[in-house]
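Thread title: Can someone regenerate the structure for this chain?

I was given the following input by a collaborator and told the matching structure tokens would be attached. They weren't. Posting the sequence so someone can regenerate them.
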Amino acid sequence: MLAFYRKSLHAAFISVFCLALGLYAYAQSGGGSISGTVLDPSGAVVPNGTVQIHNPVSAFDRSTTTDSSGKFSFPNVPFNPYHMTVTAAGFAQNAQDVEVRSAVPVNVKVSLTVAGSSSSVTVEAGADLVENDPTGHTDVDRALFNKIPLESQSSSLSSLVTLASPGVAADSNGLFHGLGDHASNSFSVDGQPITDQQSKVFSNQIPVDSVASLEVIPGAPPAEYGGKTSLVIVATTRSGQGVTTPHGSVNASYGSFGSSNVGFDLSYGGAKWGNFISANGLNSGRFLDPPEFAVLHDKGNEENIFDRVDYQVSAADSIHVNFGFTRSWFQTPNSFDTQDATAWSGTGGLDPNGNLVGPADQRSKIQTFNIAPSWTRVISPSAVFTFGAFVRRDTFNYYPSNNPFADLGPPNLQQETISQNRTLANTGLRSDVSYVKGIHNVKVGAVYQQTFLTEDFKLGIVDPSLNDPASPSFNPILAPFDLTRGGSLFPFHGHTDVKELALYIQDTITKGNWSANLGIRGDLYNGLTVARQAEPRVGVAYNIKRTNTVLRASYARTLETPFNENLILSSIGCQSAVISALIPCVNAPLDPGYRNDFHAGLQQAIGRYAVVSGDYIWKYTHTGYDFSTLAATPIFFPIGWHNSKIPGYAVRVSVPEFHGLTALVVFSSVAARFFPPQTSGLGVTVGQSGLPFRIDHDEKFNQTTHVQYQPWKRGPWVGFNWRYDSGLVAGQTPCFGGNCAQGITVGGINFISLTDSFGTPLTADQEFQSGLFCGSQRATPSTLIGFSIPGTAVLACPVSQFGSTLLNVPKPNTENDDKNPPRIAARHLFDIAIGHDNIFHGERYKWSARFSVINLTNKYALYNFLSTFSGTHYVTPRTFTAELGFHF
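Best answer:
Regenerated them for you:
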């Protein structure tokens, strides 16, 4: 059977490739175009007229002038509705609404009337604020996000999505959890699908400098999108086509933690060609979010280059190529424990050979290469054919400390030294035909992807207590790899290919006030396991024009596949006697699952001043995927749970520009309930009770309010963020799970045991990290709190005196993994940016300046604590950045 599926995939791949070659091919790659001719009342052409298209919600705004033939063109336009105005000397202004919904070019004929004519165009208030679209989504253009203060310079795209889109929970190191799933997000960059992890501990993101606009789809997407679909981020990159005079900028910034950034971008082209290139380099003393509010061993740098080339071969054929390369190098941040080996090792900071161990010195390097050419052919005024190819390769290297014994952490953290060299190369072909005629907007397409995975790592035990020969739990299988007793490193090597073929057809039908999206997608997955699935997609919207209200509902069936990162280890680790001795195993394949995703929502315009868009979401997943870790190392891998249920709501309020003021508010509440048993992968983590539990990306409520104000178009501006997070589910907090939930009663006094969920005592630094106090005692990095329970070695604290400034720990007898789990304490974070885009009021050359403050109030808060996946991380302290730019 497996051989049959492999042959089917290869045959389909060849068919798609031959079809593409036979039909030529081409695509506007993620965007459409608007062109047309402007005529006067007699039918003569009108040169030098000004044509402007504008979307008040996304803040997209572009203008051009008509040539000597009265023609105009807007290439690379994101899919959205636009309000178009045409003005020319001696004529009345013409206004109309234009929709771009596919790669099929939109051609518009404009007939102007003589100035003073009684004819006019009436635009209904609020009509251009709502979209009669069955799929809820968020549109953000560069004109808006250019002034949003972003928290992470090395993961600025993640930061932008988190701030501008509802339903997104913020996590450390550029992670964001879309609608209750662990980073089950995919990017579509000019039509190229990217479904692998994009946080800065896995891969390198495309630079935000290269992005022209974003559309964020919060689940239940049309049939053209597959893979990780909890959040689909559709990015349209910047283009130089039509930029007949070179435009660009050079900028430099410097700020807190010695963070410096230098970059440039350049756009240049003509009517038939264009090139956009950007490059920048970042160096920072706080590259990752560390396990301490203070910064220890956290330097890093990142360099990237992005280049987009467009060329129109003929009136029907165009070529588009994206190229990108990013390299990042960074240290693994230390805690006070790992910075000072004497604090917890019990050996005076010496290794078995009597050498001084010193602080941990673990580092990582990630190199990402991407090239994505495409070709588009306009078959007819109603049809466009697209063919593209892509290669994206991540190389991840993790380096241990020079002295392996420096990698030993506290007992509930790292007990091994480890190195890794992992590659993930995603290659593929995509093709589609778009057809627009009458009430139909049809798209038929195919995507073939082949992902090459290679995983190599070496591991050795550096904790003498982990496999002590005198212990009853001694395992002779681990003895050869115990470095504390003369052992050597254990090697692991794995390689496999994951092949995926998707075929889809969808039709958006617009009739009167109704709009419907009907489609079906077929996915064939052939990795270490095999799956195939038909996935119907349907959405319906109704526009109540009298009240400017759109009601919508949608449903999507999706194939849920395991994450590719360290997939081999998770799949075959149980077959290794060494790995299965280090970590519990579920010896079952990581079979893909499926999801039923339901959305119901509305969009409401409030005059011309605001638009509210909201959805209620129900997601039911059979085989829900998450991540675990290899023992207590930084190697993450996928695991599967029997099922998950994710309900919630997501709302966005947009205030278009009004007298210089622009605002948006996003808020959401999304649950993430997982149900045992664990069905696959290494490492049983939580859920051992067999009862439902909240995963550590569940959050009751979060919101972002962004306001920007520019009273004069050529004057200074200010951008302000207010972010509130009620707190993710926390990891191994005191009084979490097992007997700890009931506490300890001695002499009639109820105590809380100061251990983690596995009964391992917290170190002084971990108590400090979690903000614990016991009466007047407050934990410090070197001072434990609590009292010794008579007859035991357990430190505990009377319930009446116990508390935390950074965690919400349930009281004894109230903790419940599903209904009342421990959480990170709520936090309010404020950011501000003040700038001027043209300090000296130049026409051709402009100087800009910007000053940003992240975490304005210097809020002392956590992202997570002893999380199963990512450990402990603090939010960014107050950070200042000054930037100077030159624009031409």
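The chain has a mean pLDDT of 89.
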